[in-house]
Amino acid sequence: MKIIYPGSFDPITYGHLDIIERISKKFNKVYVAILNNKNKNSLFTIEERKKIILDSCKHLNNVEVVSFSGLLADFAKELDCNLIARGLREVSDYEKEVQMALMNKELYSDLETLFLVSNYKYSFLSSSLVKEIISFGGDIDKFVSPMAVQMMKEKYSE
Ligand code: PNS
After folding, report:
1. Which of 2, 49, 91, 96 is least surrounded by CB atoms within 10 angstroms?
2. In a domain, 42, yes or no
């Protein structure tokens, strides 16, 4: 059985990686799907995000990194995959995530969302916070991979 783990991954954090490692043990195939959102101000290009994810997932042989634009429900149909994985951190994630899961099911009735409770070690972690911390010169080694740290330092020194 296959599953899609969608997100912005700008960049992938250890919280995302924890979810990927967990689902890669339970499913034959994991598609890590990067949203190519042209309206959003992203730090990294899709290719850069893909490079960091591939590096972080090199120990997982059933993970494929893909990108999509448009609706996730349409992309899931394209991949012939009817299961989405999402991590739940704090209670504040719940409302938004349930709304998305219900809307996705409305758009593609066979599409289910599987929620995984985030590892408590990463329940406060988000890509946006990591970007804020490094932009003020803080240490982010505990939150993202060495490649992501390096690439973020380069971006913020530009
Ligand atoms: O990591 P993020 O930014 O929380 O991921 C959000 C994501 C990419 C899963 C969500 O924004 C999404 O699926 N966008 C694609 C457009 C879409 O399908 N919108 C309707 C969602 S119900």
Report:
1. 91
2. yes
Ligand 1 test: best mutation among 3, 4, 5, 8, most atoms within 8 Å of CB? 8
At 134, give phi and psi (nearest 5°). -70, -30
> Which pLDDT belongs to residue 92?
86
Residue 56 inside a domain? The answer is: yes
Cα of 97 to ligand 1 centre, how many Å? Answer: 9
> How far is the centre of ligand 1, averaged over its atoms, from the C-alpha of 38 (Å)?
13
Overall pTM > 0.85: yes
Q: Does 137 fall in a domain?
A: no
Q: Tokens for 30?
A: 């994991």
Alpha helices in the chain (DSSP H): 14-26, 46-56, 72-78, 91-107, 127-135, 146-157
